[in-house]
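Quick note —
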Amino acid sequence: MSINSVDDLISGLTNSSQHADYLKVAPAVPNAIGAFVSGWMATGNPAAGVASPAFFSGSDYTCNSGTVGAFSIRDGSFQNFLAKVTTSCTQAGTLVFADRLWSCSTISGTIQTTMTINNPGSLPSRVTDNGIGCELWIEHFVATGVATGTLTATYVNPVGQTGRTGTLATVQSAAAIGRFQNVQLQSGDNGISQLTSIIKTNTWTSGTFGATIIKRVLEIPLPIANTGDVFDWAETALKQLPDNVCLMFFFLPSVAASYTVFGSIDIIDK
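Predicted structure written out below.
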């Protein structure tokens, strides 16, 4: 089925919707203004997520609706559409909702040898386009020490080309828990289907880090702290949410201070 008219939309909101509230408190103070922060390990509702499997574990890297930390969203009888999002935050910034697809952890920050992902596998089956539009991020599940240098990730792109390289020109020194840095993919690539290895040119003085593949769902600008906003069905563009979606968010703060973000989402099953 699908939404073909205003009547379909009204019927979906009235009879076939899910409603989920959320409230998350940042696990640490962001490193700086404009430093992205993952909400994965933030406490609240949904519950704080846990660190992903170690990169050498060889299994369980993919994420789904049952992964601890994901928004509680049940699969639709027909098709889930994101119909409304309300949100408020104690500081200004940009809130980004995303489908968390794949993640690993325990990549050493203190050595410079290439760390090959053991049996990285494929993206979850809900990804039907081989990773087009998917992004690679470095995610800190624990705080790390002082660092300099660059980072290079080797990956497979959506058309199956291996040995592609993505770069992080400057790693975050003394990264706080939740620090989220986007790895720029090789020129001409429009996504990532598999991460194969990571190497740094220099080291953190302590700690480990993780790597996470996501696909964006919705971005909400919050230009004023402590005020709310509502994105209705027209502004969400009735974004389709696939079965088993692992919905999470990350935040781009305007102030290097702890934050709390809260609101709700409404979903049409039509």
